[in-house]
Design goal:
heterodimer, A: 185 residues, alpha+beta, 5-stranded antiparallel β-sheet, 5 helices, 19% strand, elongated, B: alpha+beta, 5-stranded mixed beta barrel
Chain lengths: 185, 157
């Protein structure tokens, strides 16, 4: 068997193995790339509401908090509350925070939902678990390098690395170089 | 072959979900047994600078963009302490709000000029989706934050 056949077998089989992880890193990469504009792990929703209460005193006791919550339709059991400043209370529920302000008579409900699957992909992409995953991710990186190199030699002839392939490879290499030059000069 | 692919994909997704749900420890293991009161630390911060201490309290806020900070409620009313990490060192879950955090690390001082305060408040306003008037800042400021080496987030105290 000649070297090209071995090259193509390695390229094919590594391609199959790397498929799942490539999808994980690629999908997660898109979300992480835009982390300045959106949270890659959560979908956050906010709803502002007018506070229904006759209270004027901003010295808020636990009974007052319970009363305000009940009056405004929050009957679910909360996990805790915090008073960041006089007249303002944050009440925490699993996946939800209700904030009300007796000074402005406004309230806000913030609902946080996981971006299912994508959150777990980001967890792996950012190497949050560390430990064994670090080695696994390194192996995957080496696999990608091998895939890239073997990929250059899959075809021979005018569409191979000596023809069209050379031009496209040069184009691919020049893109990061151009960006580095533009952004660092 | 199709069956095998389905089984492998399902196993992979289940594994991912399980891994994500178990992430409640961040950074190094906690070593100290006793926590310092946040109120005492903020009243006499100079005594605590450069010392490794343990703090604990309810999580009242988490960075919405990158999970790079958490606010921890003090034992004193209207007071909290921000624990801040470098982006990516630890990613605190947004769902930690209302849960209980124990952190080990050091208190540090931040002194900002008026220009830096304006930049910081602009960033905070963007993050919270609120309006900010730069003219409301009259001078620079000094405040304290906590740099953790290890954090544990629990459902209850």
């Amino acid at each position: 068997m000649n070297w090209r056949r071995w090259n193509n077998i390695i390229h094919r089989d590594l391609g199959y193995i790397a498929f799942g992880l490539t999808i994980v890193y690629a999908v997660s990469g898109i979300f992480l790339n835009h982390k300045r504009d959106l949270n890659p792990n959560y979908i956050i929703g906010n709803r502002v509401f007018e506070l229904r209460t006759n209270l004027l005193d901003t010295n808020i006791s636990i009974n007052v908090i319970n009363n305000i919550l009940k009056t405004n339709g929050f009957s679910q059991k909360y996990t805790g509350y915090f008073k960041p400043e006089p007249g303002v209370v944050q009440v925490f529920y699993p996946g939800k925070t209700v904030t009300f302000d007796l000074n402005t008579r406004k309230g806000n409900v913030e609902i946080v939902k996981n971006r299912s699957i994508v959150k777990e992909m980001n967890y792996l992409h950012l190497n949050t678990p560390g430990k064994l995953w670090t080695w696994f991710a390194d192996i995957y990186a080496v696999m990608l390098i091998l895939l890239a190199i073997t990929g250059l030699f899959v075809l021979k002839g005018k569409n191979g690395i000596k023809g069209r392939g050379a031009w496209l490879t040069a184009l691919g290499l020049s893109i990061p170089v151009i960006f580095v030059i533009i952004y660092t000069l | 072959m199709k069956k095998l692919l389905c089984i492998l994909t399902t196993m992979f997704i289940v594994q991912l979900l399980l891994m994500g749900n178990s992430a409640k420890r961040f950074g190094e293991e906690l070593k100290l047994d006793k926590s310092s009161k946040i109120s005492v630390m903020l009243e006499t911060p100079e005594k605590f600078l450069k010392k490794t201490v343990r703090i604990e309290g309810m999580v009242t806020g988490v960075c919405k963009m990158r999970g790079c900070w958490m606010d921890i409620a003090s034992d004193k009313e209207f007071q909290k302490l921000k624990i801040k990490v470098k982006d990516g060192d630890m990613v605190f879950p947004l769902t930690a709000k209302g849960k209980y955090a124990v952190a080990e690390g050091t208190l540090y001082k931040i002194s900002l000029t008026k220009k830096q305060v304006i930049e910081m408040k602009k960033h905070q306003a963007k993050e919270h989706g609120t309006k900010f008037d730069p003219d409301s800042v009259k001078s620079g400021m000094t405040f304290y934050q906590f740099k953790p080496v290890g954090v544990v987030i629990k459902n209850k105290k």
